[in-house]
Structure formats: structure tokens, C-alpha cells
Amino acid sequence: MANSDRVKVRIPAKAKKGEIIEIKTQLSHDMETGQRKDAAGKPIPRRIVNRFTCTWNGEPVVSADWYQAVSSNPFSSFFAVATASGKIKLSWWDETGEVFEYTHDIVVE
Amino acid sequence: MDIHAALSRRHLLATGAAAAAAVASALAPPARAQAADADGHARKLMGPFTAKEGRVHLKIKDVAESGTNEPVGVSVDSPMTPADYVKAIHVLAEGNPYPVVASWYLTPRSGRAEVNFRMRLAKTQMVRAYAVLSDGSVWMTRQEVKVTIGGCGG
User: Tens digits of per-residue pLDDT, B44-58?
Assistant: First the structure.
């Protein structure tokens, strides 16, 4: 699956083996809480990203359950140990079933 | 006249104190109810547990500029080795319509027990962070955050 154009990342392209790298990401998403009302006074239906995962060559690094108190355009940063060259895959699951994915190639030497 | 004045002053002080006590007792229950509600949600996430204070560090401003997008960081003192690592980090905001903000699940592959993200805060309230370690122990910390503009719509 192609990288989602809604995703921004800052991840190093290269790392030394065993180094701890920081992964910074942001997804463009309204994270609509379901508590807001539109101009006509009708509640805007809830729509949030409730699951986020990060894997390194298929092995889980970090995952998260998010609720409506996570801000819109959710930014997150966390750490990972550089073990082997390959792919860092980030996935966001929307409540409606839509999935946003981003794969980053990293070289570990 | 003097006696009368003293009496009325005493009377005023007494009623004043009673009024202050009434205000305090009127304020306390919602805050206590919120804390109990957050406790309930914490038990739903982690099962029956006893949390010890410490090891968890909550990095959040005392005064939130805006309740809609407040940076929050949680770090835990842990070597993050396969034998001893942080399994989960839970962030709860006692005064939000739904107190659970986010649950992060870490692995030894994380290397460092730290996550940063941004959260919404409905009003001035206590924010809690829990960490569940691989040996099953639970650690926590809490901090009050003052919010001038709420961030949960409405």
C-alpha cells in the first residue's frame, strides 16, 4: 500500500546497530470528538483514530489505543532500538475502518 | 454599642466561616466524583491494582495555553531490557467527559520508556499517568493543569 499523503514523519534514514532512534509522526485527521455542534446546532458525529501501531520488520515496537481526548492532527513521538535494516511501518486505524499507512526504509550499519 | 458591634462582628465571622465551609463542601463532591470515576476507568484498563507513586514522570505545563492541543510527555525510569521493561503507559484526565486519554503499549524494542503526544483538556483538572511494568507492578504520578479555554467542544 502506498504511503498515505496524510502522514508526516521525521525518522533518521540511517542508524548504528543498537542505537535508540526517535520516531516522530503526525497524521492529518480531525479526531472529531462527537461533542461539537455545527452551525445549525446539530451534533457533529464522532470520528477518531482509535488505534496506532509501529512495527520494525514486522515486529511490534509500540502500539496505542487512543480516545477522544487525543488532539486533532495527532502528533506522537517515541523511541525504537535500531536492530536491522528494513522497514518501519506506521499504521493508524480510523473508527470507520479506514487505515492510514506509512512505510519508512531505514539502513542500519 | 461596643458590645453590640463585637457581637455582630463575631456573628459575621461565624456565618462567614459557615458559608466558606458550605462552599468547600459544595466544591469537593464533583472533584471527588471525578477522581472516583477516573479510578473506575483505571481499574477497567489494568484490573485490580495498587499503584505506587514514583518512577513515572509527567511532562506537561502547569498552565495550558489552549485545552485543544496540549503537549504531554510521559517517561518512566526503566532499563527497557527483555527482563525488565514498561509494558503499558496510561494517561487519564479526571475532568474530561471521558477520562481515558490514551493507552500506549511498549516493548523491549522501544529502547526508551517515553512517549509524547498532544491531548485535549476540558477544564482545569488533575492529569494522571500510570505505568505497568513487566513484573506487574503499577507506578503513577499526577499533576494539576490549569486550563483557561476548554478543548472538548460543546
Answer: 888 888 888 888 999
Grid coordinates standing for A101?
499507512
Q: How far is A70 from chain B (nearest CA, A)?
A: 4
CA–CA separation, B18 and B60 (whole Å): 37
Residue A99 distance to chain B (closest CA, Å): 19
Domain count, chain A: 1
SS3 call for B28: helix
The domain segmentation of chain B, as residue ranges, is 31-147
Q: Report pLDDT digits (tens) over B76-127.
A: 998 889 889 999 999 999 988 889 999 999 999 998 999 999 999 888 888 9
Taking the CA of residue B131 and the nearest CA in chain A, the distance in Å comes to 14
Contacts of A106 in chain B (CB under 8 A): none
Residue B1 has pLDDT above 50, yes or no: no
Q: Whole-angstrom Cα distance, residue A81 to residue B48?
A: 32
Residue % of chain B over a pLDDT of 90: 33
Does the beta-carbon distance from A79 to B112 stay under 8 Å?
A: yes
- Residue A54 sits in a domain whose CATH number is 2.60.40.10
- State the best of B69, B118, B119 to mutate against chain A, taking most chain A CBs within 10 Å: B118
CATH (one of 3.40.50.2300, 2.30.30.240, 2.60.40.2470, 3.40.50.300) for B31-147? 2.60.40.2470
Interface size A-B, in CB pairs within 8 Å, comes to 99
User: What is the mean pLDDT for each group of 10 consecutive residues in chain A (109 residues)?
Assistant: 82 91 92 85 88 93 92 93 92 91 92
Helix H or strand E encompassing B40: helix B2-46
Q: By CA distance, what is A59's nearest residue in B?
A: B109
Q: Which of A63, A77, A78 to mutate to test the interface with B (most CBs of B within 10 A)?
A: A78
Select from A106, A93, A99, A87 the least CA-distant residue to A16.
Answer: A106
Rounded distance between C-alpha atoms, residue B58 and residue B74, angstroms? 5
